[in-house]
Each structure stands twice: as structure tokens, then as C-alpha cells.
Amino acid sequence: MRPKTAREVAFTALERGTRGAWSDGTLKRLIREAALDRRESALCSCICYGVQQNRLLLEFWMGCYSKVAVTKLEPAVRIALAMGMYQAALMDRIPQRAAVSESVELVKRFSRNPHSASLTNGILRTFCRNLDHLPQPDSLSVQYSHPQWLVDLFTAELHGEGVEALLAANNAQPPTTVQVNPLKTTAEALTAALTAAGVEVRPHSWAPGCLELRGTGDLESLEAFQKGEFLVQDAAARLAVTAAGVKPGMRVLDLCAAPGGKSFAAAMDMENRGELISCDVQEKKVQLIRRGAQRYGITILTAQVRDGRIFNPEWEQSFDVVLADVPCSGLGIIRKKPDIRTKDPTALENLPAIQAALLQNASRYVKPGGVLVYSTCTVLRRENEAVVEAFLAENPDISAEPLELGGPVGHCERGMVTLWPHLHGTDGFFVARLRRPGALPLNPAQGDFEKSP
Q1: Dist CA 194 CA 3 (whole Å)
Q2: Can you give the residue range of the structural domain that contains 105?
Q3: Whether residues 241 and 327 fall in one domain
Q4: In angstroms, rounded to a whole number, what is the distance separating the alpha carbons of residues 212 and 210?
Q5: Per DSSP, what are the bridge partners of residue 214?
Q6: CB 288 within 8 A of CB 258
Q7: Torsion sign (Cα): 42, 46, 48, 49
Q8: Cα separation of 433 and 126, whole Å?
Q9: Angle, CA of 157, 163 and 167, to the nearest 5°
Q10: pLDDT tens figures, 155-171
Q11: pLDDT tens across 263-297, in order?
């Protein structure tokens, strides 16, 4: 059987997306099944993410150059046109000839209409002749391929300042940020191993122990990944664990742990000494946490199936640190999961109630003098500050505590901070550190991050 090309794999992933199946996991699985090498894997991912991130703009251009209404085009033709237009107009180092011919070949292979190839060829050739003066949409929604409801939401959150910069950042392709696993290796040794494997590596500009990677191809195929020598984790998510200030010997609870990144980072900060309990409501996700802990060489972690909203009296006021990284709208990680922007906004309305219930229950497990960290991967006040402020008003025995996180974040007097992709170069993320008074306080997490030069 002829091996699949990078563009065929990207086409398949995008086609499945039209039926609601596209996800980062789907793309990774297809790349692995096709056994693409690093170069082909990178091209496939770039095209797939790029088309997803620019879908409305690409369809706008289709409407400008196709005599057939975009909605009338066969799905296979629409996908191939989007791929060709993206490569020709928005990618570097892709010859126009290749963008056109490869897209036509995809139509020949996947379309059921014998006339589709000539239609695709004609549209793309006309498009390429006009690359220097392509029509531009008159709305941010179409220009940056965010639904209007999302543009309106971000405009309200940012009070109209920096909205376009945020939308552009959501369409960017950031490097992969990883944390070195000190239980297995050092930054120097890991850098050498990854470089020898053909990966471009540089230290993170402000997160110690973290590296930025480019050109990884299928990340999970790297020997260093399989050995558990690094943890894939954005610097913003790393801040949630840093804010907790976990130390060796502590008893720590991660109430909503899956897929386990914060639990693993906490165990590394604890030098694999103490006790760490990680929970999720689904057994299959708990199994993922257990397998991850084994790969990272973490032995202090116990993973349990548990609903974080249901109180466990055995744990009452018994943990030094409780992490509550609650389910959220995910609107801070659109740059990594572009299909999030297609969510139904009405499905997000009940999230604050769920988040409040999780935070309330999590607080019951914090011992006197202990720390509670609430975090989300969204930038919406109603899921972040509003939830925390309402909780504090109802629980006067717990208070927010100033944060000193360094880097682009710096000092946070109110004990809570929202990070934005266009301002901080990270995922959109929210972190709040709360404390139950009583015993001597734990040492706050200060100085863990160096300040930017």
C-alpha cells in the first residue's frame, strides 16, 4: 500500500472535523498511523492547525473566487481549497505550484464528482494570481476566524483594548513548552538529547527548568518523551503549581487532576517525597494519570476515581495544599485547540455553578495554614475572579494571598492573576492562591521564577 503523504493525513483530519471528530488527539493518532517522519509530521500539523485557525477567512476567499456558493461546494472540495489557499497565502516556503497541484490531487482522490478537480484547479490558480491584492474582510470575526460571539466576549473582557492582538495570538503557532523532569535528567542533558534527535531547543525566557521546542514532529515518538524526561506543560499552567509552593514532605491533593500535568509538576517540586492524591471522575482518565506517573518515575502519587463536588469526610482539613484546576470553557487555549472556537456558547453558561461547587468542596480539605489554588485555562471573569470573589464572600475564614511569580507576571497583590496570550506569551490562564489561617503559614512561593531581563 502506498504510504500516505502529509497533506493526505491533514485532509483526513480536517474531513473528520466536518463531522465533529477533529481534535489534537485525532491528528496525533493519524500522524502516528501514517508513520510520517519529523518533516512530514510538521507540515501536516501546520496545515491542519492553520486551516482550522483561519477557516472563516479561507471560506471568505473561496466566496470571492468561486462561482459556486461555498455552502454548495462538496466538503472534499471545500477542504482541499482551504488547504491550498492556506499554503499559498499564509505559509512560508510552499511554492504556489505545489499548493495548487497537491490540492487538485486530493480532490481527485477524495471527491466523488469527476468535475471537481478542474473546478479546484481553476479557483486556486485565479487565487494565486491575486495573492498580492487579495480582498480583505471588514470584520475581525472573519479576518481572524473567530465567531462573532467570541469576538464580542473578548472585547468585553478586555474593554476593547488589544482585542485584535489577542485574536492574532490565538492564530499563532507557539513553540512547545516542556518542563525538565528532575527525577530523571537535567536541563543540560535533556537539551543535548533533544538536539541530537533533531529538535530545536532553547531555554524558556523566564520559567526555570522549562524549555521551548520546535520541530519535534511526533512528540511522543521521541526517546526522551518515552523515558519521561520531560513534561509537556505551558508556562502558564506551570505557574499554578508554582503558586501553590509545594515542598518535599507535604500532603497534596489535586482534585481535578486529569490529564495529570499539575500533579506531575507538583511531584517533581516535592522531589518525589510526601503524599500526592490525584482525582478524576472518569476511570479511563485516572488510568492515564497512573501511566504518566509511572513514566515520570513518580511513586508518591495515588490516583483515584472521585467526583470533586462530593465531600469526603476522611479528607477534611488534612492537606497542606489543594489544587483545584476546574473544568472550564477553555477559551485561553484556542491557539493550541482551535476547534474550541466552534463551541456552542449556551453550553458554557452553567460552568460557574460547577466551578463554585468544586471550589467550595476543595476548600474543606485544606488544613489550618494550608493553601488552596484555584485555576482555569480560560480568560473569562465570570469563571475566574467572579467565582473566587463569591467564594471568599461566603467563606470569611479563607483569604486571598499576594503572589510573587516573577517573569512577565510579577507581583499580584490581590492573590489572583489572568494571563493572556498576547500579553504574556502563554496560554490564557487564571490562577488564585487562597489560604486558610490557623497554624504557621507555609513559605509562599516567591522567587521561583526569574524576572525577565
Answers
A1: 27
A2: 6-136
A3: yes
A4: 7
A5: 200
A6: yes
A7: positive
A8: 56
A9: 115
A10: 999 999 999 999 999 99
A11: 999 999 999 999 999 999 999 999 999 999 999 99
